From TrEMBL:
One Pfam family here: FMN_bind_2
Source organism of this protein record: Tsuneonella litorea
Gene3D superfamilies: Electron Transport, Fmn-binding Protein, Chain A (2.30.110.10)
Name of the featured protein: FMN-binding negative transcriptional regulator
Biological classification of the source: Bacteria, Pseudomonadati, Pseudomonadota, Alphaproteobacteria, Sphingomonadales
InterPro entries: Split_barrel_FMN-bd, TR_PAI2-type
Amino acid sequence: MHPNPLFRSEDRALLEALVDEVGFGMVFAATPDGPRVAHVPLVPTGDGAIQFHLARGNALTRWLGGETALVVVNGPDAYVSPRWYADRATVPTWNYVALELEGRVRRMDADGLEDQLHALIARNEGRLAGDQWSANETPPDMWRKLLGGIVGFEMEVLAWRPTLKLSQNKPAAERESIAAGLDAAGSPALAQLMRTLGA
């Protein structure tokens, strides 16, 4: 989390929307083998927890149950050039949106894992145009075999640490100039967030 309080938010609905929109993150934990990270799809439960799954052979799988972990969700980010400032006698920076979630992890049972997968499929298939794919299209024997290769987890989020670094420390006209520069440089999502959240 960035130390500048201008770049923080207490808007829990916004933070949960970020997790839902991005839908992917990194799980970090200390293990007896050293620190490890896994990249995972995320499913917010709507009640302060997030779910994810790992391959059974992942270096974190056997250590996570009952432990505290850190999940990081990254939103858009981009380089900010001093050429977009009124006074160019400064240095470059980086604008970004990121969220750190810390909490206790529990291993899910098979039914919970299956529910997680169906929620993940429904959310992501619903975002695509055309006919949606259904898990029912996978032969049951294949589904069971693939399901046996992964382990589900749920983390009760005890700490939400966001950074929404969107040039809030700059005057409105300069923020718009930076947003326009980001648009032109191919970072429209970050520019839009600057216009809607950074004001």
